[in-house]
Write a structure and sequence with these properties.
five-stranded antiparallel beta sheet; 16 strands; 14 helices; about 30% helix; about 400 residues; alpha+beta
Length: about 400
């Protein structure tokens, strides 16, 4: 039996949140099955900064400009940043998710419409030049005057593998969400025979141990139980504290539940919080409503001892404001005065990155300097500011 705490440690290890890695950014993006990129541009950058040693925003922006990674609707029908290869493989596998979203949200407004003809016309338009949905919808409505342009544009989004082209998603630059097809952007066709088995195995590598309900929560796909059953001879099985059957890769990391977990700042919309039916391995149920808002926003969060313990935000003055949900006890990882336990953040044009924390990257082209961080309290919040001069490559922090 695996305790909830042990499941949390396994998840953090696979997400490189127990210890950062020096893997190339594209390799880590592939390992994670992509990064949630619903909000542009910050979340993918912050997600990598939490997990990669020496990461700077220009490394990811360069990958986007080189078409090595792309932004496209995938898991749960939401925008993810994935490698070019995963775009061509995952998009056809996840087509049923987009089909369901189209039927559920726009079915009545699209009733009786020739969707194949709509898709063909939309493909021609976006491959002629990248277009926003605000541009695409009216063009599609020109020959369908009785239809809602917004619904037509969303139908194109679900029917076609549309990628968002730069400058959308570039650090410090940005731009409107203009779309073209993955085939036109990458110069290659979609995978004609992608394998669900591979999708499941890769999910377990990054998010396991897990069961069918977890796979559905992460991907949006139903009916993956038979795939797990087919793969069972290659997998290990466990039970959680509720007696649920979980599957896992035999050699995947499952550290002891008492392994220390450093403080981390998680990006908004981080998939760590969105990929299991029972999020309790990292997100206590009592805090769920404080992290996930009713209008679908997932806030940036503070991890202490492997569990969500607060939220954070960036102020207009470029302070990172951390709002703990309760007292942060001395003597614990991330406690009141633990060296290297503070998070990290953005201060003006500098990156503040104490050892053991996760940071907010500087604007594109801005100098990055690692400084000692000092925390001050204002009401129920903790405000992070820079303090003394740089101390070599590593920095430490204190709670004030």
């Amino acid at each position: 039996m695996l305790t909830t705490r042990a499941l949390g440690r396994a998840l953090l290890a696979r997400q490189h949140l127990l210890e950062r890695t020096d893997r190339p950014p594209a390799e880590l993006i592939r390992h994670l099955g992509g990064l949630q990129a619903q909000a542009a541009p910050q979340p993918p950058y912050l997600g990598l900064l939490s997990r990669l040693d020496g990461f700077t925003p220009d490394r990811l922006s360069t990958l986007i400009e080189q078409r090595a990674v792309v932004r496209i609707a995938l898991q749960r029908g939401t925008i993810h940043l994935v490698t070019a290869e995963d775009c061509l493989t995952l998009r056809p596998l996840l087509q049923p998710v987009l089909d369901q979203a189209l039927r559920t949200t726009y079915g009545k407004r699209l009733a009786g419409l020739d969707l194949a003809a709509l898709a063909a016309e939309a493909r021609s338009l976006v491959e002629e030049r990248p277009r926003t949905f605000q541009q695409l919808g009216p063009l599609l409505a020109a020959s369908r005057p009785d239809r809602d342009p917004a619904a037509l544009a969303q139908a194109a989004r679900c029917l076609l593998p549309l990628v968002q082209v730069p400058p959308r998603g570039l650090w410090g630059r940005g731009g409107p969400a203009a779309h073209t097809t993955a085939e036109a952007w990458l110069g290659r066709p979609l995978d004609p025979a992608p394998a669900l088995d591979d999708l499941v195995l890769r999910y377990l590598a990054a998010f396991g141990p897990a069961g069918p309900a977890d796979l559905k929560k992460w991907s949006g796909l139903s009916g993956l139980g038979p795939v797990l059953a087919r793969l069972a001879p290659r997998l290990r099985t466990f039970r959680d504290e509720q007696g649920r059957l979980l599957h896992d890769l035999p050699q995947a990391p499952r550290p002891a539940e008492d392994v220390p977990a450093p403080v981390r700042l998680l990006a908004p919309f981080d998939n760590l919080l969105l990929s299991h039916a029972d999020r309790g391995r990292v997100l206590p149920e009592r805090y769920r409503g404080r992290v996930m808002t009713q209008n679908g926003i997932v806030l940036g969060t503070l991890l202490v001892d492997g569990l969500v313990a607060g939220t954070w935000r960036l102020t207009a003055e470029q302070d990172v404001v951390v709002q703990p949900f309760g007292p942060l006890a001395p003597g614990r990882p991330g406690g009141r005065r633990g060296r290297g336990a503070a998070g990290a953040g953005l201060r003006g044009r500098r990156r503040v990155r104490p050892g053991g924390g996760a940071g907010v990257a500087p604007r594109r082209g801005a100098p990055a300097r690692c400084r000692t961080t000092r925390w001050r309290r204002r009401g129920g919040n903790v405000i992070m500011t820079d303090a003394t001069a740089t101390r070599g490559r590593g920095c430490d922090g204190t709670w004030n």
